[in-house]
Amino acid sequence: MSGNPNQRREPRIPMVDSFMLVAGRRLQLRNWSYSGFFAGPIDGELHLGRDFDLTLELRSELGNAEVKGRGKLVRSDAAGIAGTWTLEKTSQQAEMLLRYFLAYPDPSALED
């Protein structure tokens, strides 16, 4: 095994044609999990460790969803931004919706 082991609590799911709205910008959502994301890149709009509002625009062959939350930036470089996020308002319906999108595409297609 080379490099650092993945220390994420939940594996990230690769996304196609989904976006994250933040700081008035629509960023390509490259991968995400129930608690983390990788998107962008974005220039100078966000600062490490600071909280910000975000909206996930999730798309699949079976439907679309828009989920509002709060994020915290943990990494920003030329490749993109990465951080953690939580639901703005937790509810059983919102959690079921997120679990549906996390199961799509097939979890066996997860990237390293």
Overall description:
The chain is built from one helix and seven strands. It has one helix at 92-102, and strands at residues 13-14, 19-22, 25-32, 36-39, 51-60, 63-77, 80-87. Residues 1-5 and 107-112 have low confidence and may be disordered.
Short recap of the structure:
This protein is mainly β and 112 residues long.
Task: Give the key terms.
112 residues; mainly beta; disordered C terminus
Furnish the topology, listing elements before pairings.
Layout: E1 13-14, E2 19-22, E3 25-32, E4 36-39, E5 51-60, E6 63-77, E7 80-87, H1 92-102
Antiparallel strand pairs: 1-3, 2-3, 2-5, 3-4, 4-7, 5-6, 6-7
**Secondary-structure element order, N to C:** EEEEEEEH
Q: Percent helix among the residues?
A: under 10%
* SSE class: mainly beta
Major sheet characteristics: 6 strands, antiparallel, barrel
Treating each run of at least 4 consecutive H or I residues as one helix, how many helices? 1
Number of strands: 7
What spatial form do the alpha-carbon principal axes imply?
A: globular
Taking pLDDT < 50 over at least 5 consecutive residues as the criterion, the unreliable ranges are 1-5, 107-112
How much strand content do the residues show? over 45%
CATH architecture: Beta Barrel
- The CATH class: Mainly Beta
